[in-house]
Amino acid sequence: MKAWHFSETAYPYLPPAETYSSIRVTLPNRHFDPEKGATLWDRYLDEWCIADDEGIEVMLNEHHQTATCADPAAPLVLAALARVTKKARLLILGNPIANRRQPVRVAEEMALADVLSHGRVEVGFVRGVPWELAAANSNPVRTNERHWEALDLIIRAWTAHDGPISHEGRFFHHRMINIWPRPYQQPHPPVWVSTTSPSGAARVGARGFVQATFLTGFDGTRAVFDAYRKGWRDAGRGDHVPLDRLAYAALVYTAPSEREARAGAEKLMWYVTANKIVPQFTYPPGYVPVKTAVDVIRGRISPLSHFGASPTVENAIKSGIMFAGTPDQVMAQIRKVYDYVGGFGHLLMMGQAGFLEHDETVLSIKTFAREVYPRLKEGFCG
Amino acid sequence: MAGMIRIAGIDLDVAEYGDGPALLMLHGAGGHHPRHAVNALLSARRRVICPSHPGFGKSALPDWLDSVDDIAHVYLELMDRLGLPKVELIGCSIGGWIAAEMATKAPERFTKLVMVAPVGVKTGSPDRLDVPDVFALPPEELDRLLFRDPRRMAQDPAALSDEDLSIVVRNRETLALIAWEPYMHNPKLKHRLHRVAAPALFLRGDSDGLVSDAYLQAYARLLPNARTATIANAGHVPQLEQPLAFAAAALDFLDAERPE
């Protein structure tokens, strides 16, 4: 199994939550202190470098107009990581291509980052969380259709080497496509797609891309992975679905003692508890099917259903969205989810959030890398 | 004739009320309201034809359709199918936008035009929205902009069947599809409206929080033969909130100096 250190690079120094309606989309950026932000960015890059030194892979993402993630341009940070890390694979998960106007530009950015890193880039594509649509001014209807057309166009742009090709599709049009540089890895970098829905996963499986799912817990993750495996087999890719096609993202905090682990896990929960949102940006029209939207309005689907009664560390661990404790405890928690969902080859570890300080973040990275990771590699095939 | 009519491969749900001169009535983002009093009031003196726009109500939405311009073409074809060379036209909100697009494409086919709190053009400066962003408003604030009396008029999802709630959700989805960007307007439309020579009446409720009086006046000035009026004690949907006053204003205008 491969483990990846992931930070959503939050800017946590905010006024009291009761003074604003939403941490996303509308929170005024006067609350972003540029000096504090620059210091935070130094720190987040350092933490990825420490993960690299410890033999852990690196993952980053982007969000827009939100204090939960101060990275609105992940390709820029990917380029920096390509130079400051030495050996880690670099996973950008991902490029919100339904919200990008020029897929060919995305193909160029990823190819350049792949060259800068001498072939260490893994390219993820995401449809994006609903709050992104207002920020990107991107039509919330037909995002799936745009996503897949853009993805196919990007792969064509990466793999055409004999002069210009053209694309006249439903959403994108480009006559002279001939990117320089082309990717370092041939035929192209590994492709990841994230989805938390079974219908999306079946399509990813049919294509054989790496499937990532985020904080979906025991049953949600099993449904996604089952759909992926079915999609893979139905497409005639063979009975055996390699574990390295499946990735699970969870909140992870590992420390030598239960007391330290508990303190770190509590701070990590900021990722969940600070996400103050409003319905008009959470359920933009067309983002989910009509039937799902009706179920949400009726209260048949709750955003916090993973957590049972409330978002606590206990409930997060119990529902399989957090692995936190001593190395032995973390091993046991991972094993339980791993067995329940039918296995996975990548653990995406959200290892920093909110007010989890540098030393605390590094303690978890190092404890995991030295005490858990060797056992994971040994005990879990793939 | 009423029911499903297939136009350009799209199954359109078309309601009809009454007899008399043909009046095509184009609904706003909330969809057609078959049981509402306004239908009976207008149909007392007209044959009122109320199609549900593609993607609204029970009308189908094909993959290729994504704009008000597309809908305008579909409705010109619907008029052909119904054997209506000329009609009177009422358009409400985005229905007004569709009406304006139709009238610029075939001005000779419309004898009179009633635009009710219409959207569709950009009249103000680039640094502020002409129409408040309905997709960014909390639901209760949107209701305050839509209605003079939200307590009486606002829809309570709990009171709707799952089928009717699905239509509400789908209407909103199609609204986003066709009005998201450019927001609530076609930049080209205002350069075409000078062709619409038919007499036009631009109406708005006096408490409309979405279509301002300044917007209505500026829009009306783009047509050579338009005037404006206000419906008292109504918001953005005067045809539903004050059906009597609305029907009186519309029919008085349509009946005045009606061409034979």
Describe the structure.
The complex is a heterodimer of chains A (382) and B (260). Chain A is of the alpha/beta class and 382 residues long. Chain A has a single domain, classed as Alpha-Beta Barrel (TIM Barrel), CATH 3.20.20.30. Chain A is built from 14 helices and 11 strands. In chain A, the strands form 2 sheets. Chain A has an 8-stranded parallel barrel with strand order 1-2-3-4-7-8-9-11, surrounded by 7 helices. Chain A has a two-stranded antiparallel ribbon with strand order 5-6. In chain A, helix 6 (198-207) links the parallel strand 7 and strand 8. Chain A starts with a strand and ends with a helix. Chain B has a single domain (3-255), classed as Rossmann fold (3-Layer(aba) Sandwich), CATH 3.40.50. Chain B is globular. In chain B, strands 1-2-4-3-5-6-7-8 form an 8-stranded mixed β-sheet, sandwiched between helices. Chain B contains 9 helices and 8 strands. Chain B is an alpha/beta fold. Classes of the chains: A alpha/beta (382), B alpha/beta (260). The A-B interface holds A 25-26, 134, 137, 139-142, 170, 278-281, 284-286, 290-291, 293-294, 297-298 and B 63, 66, 135-139, 157, 162, 165-166, 169-170, 172-177, 180-181.
